[in-house]
Design a protein that fits this description.
This protein is of the alpha+beta class. About 30% of the residues lie in helices and about 25% in strands. The strands form five sheets. Strands 13, 14, 15, 16, 17, 18, 19, 22, 23, 24 and 25 form an eleven-stranded mixed sheet that branches. The two termini are about 45 Å apart.
Amino acid sequence: MRTVRKPLLFAILVSVVLVLALIHMWSTCVSTTVDVWQRHDLLEKHTDQLRQADPQLSAIPFHVREGVASLLGRNGCVCESQGVHLPYLQMLTSWVSAQPLHTAFQASELEEVRRRRDQEFKSFQSRSYTPADTLITAEANNPLQYPTQGVEVRPMKTIIIPGLALHAPPRDRYSINLTATLGTLNVAAEVQGVQIRGDGKMHMSLSSDVLTNLNRQLQFVTYTNTVFHPSTADAVHVETEGHGANFIIKVRHGVRPKLYNTGPQGEYNISTLVTILTKTFLRYDKLQNLIDSVRKFYPTVTIIIADDSKNPQTISGPYIEHYIMPFGKGWFAGRNLALSQATTKYVLWVDDDFIFTSSTKLEKLVDVLERTTLDLVGGAVREVTGYTSSYRHTMSVEPGEEDGDCLHIRRGFYHGIQGFPNCVVTDGVINFFLARTDKLQQVGFDPQLNRVAHLEFFIEGLGSLHVGSCDDVIVGHASKIKVPWVAQSESDKAYASFRYAATSPSRFGLMYFKYRLQCLTHSN
């Protein structure tokens, strides 16, 4: 009887688990997206905007295509988890967790934190906004011809405004007015039969009885920037009888290139192209294993080490730079220090417990950056168990209102890269990546994140870093498996006590204030 009951009970247990898994998979599959939003309320907001777009057309009925309208920009920042989180089932199905970030603060201090964050956000908006961000629509049948994009002037310099003309029906006299806000208008030459008023001022009028003469004069109109700002824009207004328009003149210094002399062309010389960066803390045995493995394959590549150990040991050798930091300064501070000393075109970031193998082909990563527009490309990390991970994640920000935005992170990528069958475009990669040095320096690493951080770097780079991932360039990872018959070393114990200790400010508190986020959702 017992021999019959055990298989029966086991079969019932397996059946229950499978049914629950199928229910969870079904609920996940029927959802069109992992982001949760209130569709009907948002759709109503957009229909109101459509009705108010043109009062003369508001009486004409229309039918909303929900499948398309739901893709429009929306305030869909809802902090909700998705799916059923049951032990072991997450290995079979996808589960999205949601973390309200304001919970990083005590209720008594949250109101003051929100006030300061709102103040900082308004200041940020005022600094970052320029007239170039203003939506400008060219009205239909406008007789005015003007540049819509691409006009630039250096601060306090003068240019001829290209593309100005008037295409008006016959009349006794033709006129055109121009108004600037950050500079003055003038003409580089005068055309006979054209009257000019306000030349050298912010407002200038041109008029003539002959349209061709007026258009010829418009070819010599100049703009001089008079209000210094290294990067802004002037919205110039142009008008004629019954018609008006605006166009943008960007005021900025030209972007200076930062070029690297990598020597004669030919095969990639990794020693002149790449510097290896790492940050160490107490784990000198693992660090030495990393150095030994690098030297096996790349004997002359420079390795820069940032070290914030309490009693730092001497690390020396050819092509090694060892920088001592204040004790416990932190991981991102170490990243910044190491990065600041790099002089090569590319830098490779590795953890101090990584191990180079025959599959760690840096030439492949260099080839991707040399032949594409990517700024950073990650590889893959292989554990001693044989499991290999490339940690590919996409990120998107859902705009919110006064409480902040929602950041959604999902496993996956956008598309493959032509010519590189093992590479894809994504937003976040594993902690083993090659990057353009100057682009990495532009984003930087926040020293407040002293122990646990990785995701934050890619959040700060979102919108400025073009990221890729290649799973055929693999670095090994020292074993973290604990076995009872092998005692944990004192350095590993000390490292763990710092690595997983609580930090201040908390990661969630930093995300809440610095990035103005209210919620983080993440797939398993």
